[in-house]
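Tip: read the tokens left to right.
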């Protein structure tokens, strides 16, 4: 069986998405997604926060249409990055590379990458 790297989440944007461009002009959009962990015995369990990254057409659509607090359904893959900070200490992070997004708060087009 082949390896499988697929994640789906529903959550709200923590802040307005940020747009950057590669040296060749390719749009790259970054945003953070809060996903509530639910409740147990009537007590809220808090939220998980995920860094998300989208490219090309999806990046443009997300940047132009989403804002802080908006609810979305995200599908994508996990990407684990490792590096050393200025002091040489090892660091790592995991982010979601968004392949598809559905806007849940308003009528918008769904996107596929």
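Filled-in amino acids:
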């Amino acid at each position: 069986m082949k390896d499988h790297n697929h994640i789906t989440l529903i959550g709200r944007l923590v802040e307005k998405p940020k747009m950057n461009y590669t040296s060749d002009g390719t749009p790259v959009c970054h945003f953070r997604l809060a996903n509530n962990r639910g409740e147990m015995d009537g007590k809220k369990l808090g939220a998980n926060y995920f860094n998300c990254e989208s490219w090309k057409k999806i990046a443009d659509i997300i940047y132009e249409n989403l804002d802080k607090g908006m609810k979305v359904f995200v599908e994508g893959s996990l990407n684990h990055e490792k590096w050393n900070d200025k002091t040489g200490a090892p660091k790592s992070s995991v982010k979601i590379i968004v392949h598809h997004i559905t806007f849940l708060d308003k009528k918008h087009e769904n996107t596929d990458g």
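The chain has one domain: 7-112. The helical segments are 56-65.
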